Amino acid sequence: MLWLCCLLLSTITLAQTGNYVFSGGEAANFGTISLTTSTSWGTARTSPQGYFAAYGTATYTGADDTHNINGYVKHYVQVANQGFTFPVGTGSDLRALTTSGSIANGLVVGTAWILGNPGSTTDPTDGTTHSTSSLGTGITAVSTVGQWDWVVSSGSAAGVTVSVSIPDVSALGPATQLRLIGWNGSQWVNLSGSSGASGNTENSTLSGTMQSGITAIGIGLSTPPAAGTIDCAQTQLNPAPVSGTPGQVVLVVTVNITSPGVFPVTVSGSGMSLANGVTSVTATSTGTKQFYIPLDYDGSTLGTLNFTIGSAGSCSANLTSPPKQTVSNVWTLSCVPTVGPALK
Hints:
Blueprint: H1 2-17, E1 20-21, E2 26-29, E3 32-34, E4 41-43, E5 51-55, E6 59-61, E7 69-70, E8 72-76, E9 84-86, E10 97-101, E11 108-115, E12 141-142, E13 146-154, E14 160-165, E15 178-183, E16 188-190, E17 205-209, E18 216-221, E19 227-238, E20 247-259, E21 261-268, E22 272-274, E23 280-283, E24 287-297, E25 304-309, E26 314-318
Parallel strand pairs: 1-4, 2-5, 3-6, 4-7, 5-8
Antiparallel strand pairs: 8-11, 9-10, 10-14, 11-13, 12-18, 13-18, 14-17, 15-16, 15-18, 19-20, 20-24, 21-23, 21-25, 22-24, 25-26
């Protein structure tokens, strides 16, 4: 037993004086370690990563932009609802992450701040990049500044409150529209609900609730829901679908916009479905606007087409009626070739 105690104390001293943990290793912390003793703390970032590992109530103090762990930190939860602050960063920039709230006893979770565009920077844990164009409901953009790798080694982190210190993302959008997002293996999903950040500048805080299956955490933008009223009488399908002949048509919808934002779109009936990956339309200003929504028609018997444009309302259209032919005014332009300097 005496030998074991000495070994643990030796491990803590090693973590303070030998400030790098090699691939596959862990430097255990059972007490308090001050990061101010050195300006160089780091771990191997390639798989298998190295970890500074804190057990239970163990902590790292003195974290700031000069004193942080350039690599991975792990926490072994030993009592239910035991939160922890991970002092991770780049070595010259602290990007701390804190867990709190509902935390299961026995959860083992690690993280590191990974600088760079998630869409082109490989996550060491899952060995992939995380496309910034694969967006879940309500998320319209992903920050390309960086991400936090999220590594659950034991237990489930679902329901844990996660708060992060963000970099300057003022170019991404206003604080009210920022969201903590998680990569679920196929897309970035909203972890913050309708809550924004404390600000959009360096060291502002952003929080969310963890979900199962998340392997990385990022900063996203959510455009607020739009408001308005749909004018069902002005709806058009162009061209008119021919029953039994599959193809693509465009649903033209007129909406009186009272509050700019995003309208989720749903379509059903008559073999119609949303096409080209469209799931919503965005209004950038108020007033009467037309939206052009591509639909795929599978050739089914035409009947009733139903569609909903967010809070603007829903409409039903009878597609068994014969289509109307429309005549449009067309400009006939008298053009002449342009020569000389105008072509430069």
